[in-house]
Design goal:
single chain, globular
């Protein structure tokens, strides 16, 4: 089975099948850069595509035309994936490592994505974006409960904080909802926390 087949199936499942060529282009670019600057421990095209498939589970939880901030973007998981899948979104990726930020900028240019990249620290006390977003997301940068607390400060009233929960479940704060999905034959979940009424 080609590594593109699970990617195509995931894109179809979340309603973004026409964006498959862009997602494939991102995986290939990631693989090239990863040989030089260590974007991720994922080395092969199937391994990288697997991470993209996981990130696509976020797509249905992001409202149309939203301003989205991805904190601790790394190689663009999930920020670049969301931008590639959803051209209606306006993404801001925050990544403190200059080499990774350079990849994010190059990928956004090459794939014609609407993405801004900020090279700054991602410690909670340092996160002071100039404008608030509609959606804040982070993957594997903070523990889940810390992220939900930090994310609240990054979105407008009525905005959404998204997190990706692994196999271990935690007790969620008030207002947070767990949305299960299957990944690698196991149940994981998108956590969505909607902030106060706008």
């Amino acid at each position: 089975m080609s590594w593109t087949e699970p990617l195509a199936a995931a894109a179809t499942a979340v309603g973004v099948a026409p964006r498959l060529p862009i997602l494939v282009g991102y995986v290939e670019a990631f693989a090239r850069w990863n040989q030089r600057i260590n974007l991720s421990a994922a080395r092969t095209l199937p391994e990288i595509a697997d991470h993209v498939v996981d990130c696509l589970a976020l797509v249905p939880h992001v409202p149309p035309d939203a301003r989205v901030i991805d904190v601790g973007s790394g190689g663009g998981l999930p920020g670049i994936v969301l931008a590639a899948a959803r051209p209606d979104l306006r993404l801001t990726c925050i990544e403190p490592i200059h080499k990774k930020a350079a990849f994010l900028r190059q990928a956004a240019r090459d794939l014609a994505l609407t993405v801004s990249v900020l090279t700054q620290r991602v410690e909670p006390s340092d996160l002071q974006p100039s404008t608030l977003s509609d959606v804040a997301v982070s993957r594997a940068t903070f523990d889940l409960l810390t992220w939900l607390a930090v994310g609240r400060s990054l979105v407008v009233p009525g905005g959404i904080v998204l997190a990706m929960e692994g196999l271990d479940q935690v007790t969620l704060p008030d207002g947070a909802e767990r949305h299960p999905y299957i990944f690698r034959d196991r149940t994981r979940a998108i956590i969505a926390l909607r902030t106060g009424t706008p």
